[in-house]
Write a structure and sequence with these properties.
3 helices, alpha+beta, two-stranded antiparallel sheet, elongated
Length: about 80
């Protein structure tokens, strides 16, 4: 605010008065949200994709969701169940 980069906007908000280069996406997100943020997870590109690649956890969930369930698997032998 001292440098005039952030200016009051409305009652309790601030906005950027001009372009400003931050040191990282997380720093930019933290400043804009007034709290600690993970910029790679918060910022999205024009297509709505996050800057960060999906975590391994999310990749595993996606694989599981796309995998056939045990009920869908066909076998050549009759089943007792």
């Amino acid at each position: 605010m001292d440098e005039g980069v952030l200016v009051p906007y409305g009652d309790q908000q601030l906005r950027l008065a001009r372009d400003h280069e931050f040191n990282s996406p997380s720093q930019a997100a933290s400043i804009m949200c007034a709290g600690n943020r993970n910029g790679l997870g918060d910022w999205k590109d024009d297509n709505g994709h996050r800057l960060a690649p999906p975590s391994r956890f999310h990749q595993r969930l996606k694989r599981r969701a796309n995998a056939p369930s045990k009920r869908q698997v066909q076998t050549s032998e009759p089943s007792l169940f």
